[in-house]
Each structure stands twice: as structure tokens, then as C-alpha cells.
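Example for tutorial group B:
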């Protein structure tokens, strides 16, 4: 029995879910991380500040990626709740950057065209990138305004937003970085 056939049989027995044996290669192609190097020690989950809110712990994300449980993984909220803080990467004895794996899963989720578990977080990411493309950095007021328009969520975080504004943390006028043309060139290349 080939190793890929073994994986399919195991996942059907263990999870009852469709298996995509190419998913680990898809992840590697997107972000360069080899999910097979994870040996499930759980150090990433123990240190992750967002694990309490995730529907899958970070080490479960890795295990599902190894098994090719793509559909379940890209439908999870965990991939969107990762804050990209890299605490897991600093703790991982195998040098795995889970935030890159999470990013790859987000890209696969968007590419799939299926409903996202956390569509508002995806919108936030898009608006953040729009700000970086326009100004070379985030302009918080612009980001909040566009995000609120897209999500129609006008009233959450109003008090904390007002407090930040009163403390001068939110500038009305966007500032632009030097070398903005270089930043925009990167975006054109990425598109
Ligand atoms: S810390 Fe690294 S090796 Fe351990 S479970 Fe997490 S990703 Fe896998
Ligand atoms: S990068 Fe993501 S998965 Fe890793 S510790 Fe931070 S929030 Fe958790």
C-alpha cells in the first residue's frame, strides 16, 4: 500500500472526511513551510494567546494539514483568529512557522470560493492591505471607516475608538512612507 493510500484510509477511518493528499504540497508552495516536520509536541498551542478562542488548536491545525483534511481546515475559524504573533514559531522545536501555515490556509479558503468562517476578518485584512497599498502604512481612521462600511457594523468598538481618538492615537490625515512607489510596485507584482 502506498503512503498516500495509507493516509486516505486513515483519514476516512479517523475523521470521516474527504482527504486531499496534495494539500501539504499546496501549503508548501504558498508559504514554504513543510507541515510534515511537525511532531505534535503541542508547544505552539501551549503558548498561543489566541488558542482559547479557536475552534481548532494550532497543533490540531498542523495535524489536519498533515492528513490532508483541507475542507475541514479551510472551513475553520482558527485560521482567521491567528494573530500572526509568531509565539508558536519561537517555541517550536521543529522551526515551524504556524502563522505562515495559517496564512496559506486562508489563501486556500478564499481560492475555494466557499463561505468563510470569519468573513469580517477577511474583510479587515483586505482593507488593511488597501491602506498599505495607498499609503505604504496603515491609516487607522481610513481602515476603520472602510471596514465599517463593508461590514455594516457601525456601533461595535465605538467607545474604545473614541478613547483612542481623544488620546491622539488616530490621526485624521494619512501619512505616507518614503518609497511609496516601491510599495505599490510590490502590490502590482503580487496581483
Ligand atoms: S510546536 Fe512545532 S512541532 Fe510542536 S506541535 Fe507545534 S508546530 Fe508541531
Ligand atoms: S502566530 Fe497564530 S498560531 Fe502562532 S501563537 Fe500567534 S496567534 Fe497562535
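The residue assignment follows.
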Amino acid at each position: 500500500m502506498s503512503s498516500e493510500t495509507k493516509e486516505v484510509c486513515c483519514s476516512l477511518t479517523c475523521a470521516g472526511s474527504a482527504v486531499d493528499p496534495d494539500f501539504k504540497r499546496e501549503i508548501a508552495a504558498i508559504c514554504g513551510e513543510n507541515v510534515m516536520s511537525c511532531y505534535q509536541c503541542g508547544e505552539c498551542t501551549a503558548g498561543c494567546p489566541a488558542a482559547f478562542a479557536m475552534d481548532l488548536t494550532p497543533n490540531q491545525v498542523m495535524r489536519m494539514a498533515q492528513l490532508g483534511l483541507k475542507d475541514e481546515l479551510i472551513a475553520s475559524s482558527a485560521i482567521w483568529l491567528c494573530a500572526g504573533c509568531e509565539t508558536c514559531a519561537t517555541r517550536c522545536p521543529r522551526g515551524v512557522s504556524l502563522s505562515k501555515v495559517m496564512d496559506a490556509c486562508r489563501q486556500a479558503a478564499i481560492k475555494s470560493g466557499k463561505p468563510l468562517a470569519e468573513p469580517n476578518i477577511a474583510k479587515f485584512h483586505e482593507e488593511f492591505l488597501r491602506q498599505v497599498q495607498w499609503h505604504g502604512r496603515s491609516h487607522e481612521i481610513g481602515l476603520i471607516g472602510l471596514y465599517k462600511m463593508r461590514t455594516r457594523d457601525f456601533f461595535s468598538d465605538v467607545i474604545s475608538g473614541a478613547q483612542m481618538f481623544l488620546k491622539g492615537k488616530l490621526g485624521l490625515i494619512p501619512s505616507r512612507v518614503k518609497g511609496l512607489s516601491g510599495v505599490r510596485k510590490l502590490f502590482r507584482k503580487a496581483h
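The domain at 3-112 is CATH 1.10.1060.10 (Fumarate Reductase Iron-sulfur Protein; Chain B, domain 2). Compare this with the pattern of hydrophobic and polar residues in the output above.
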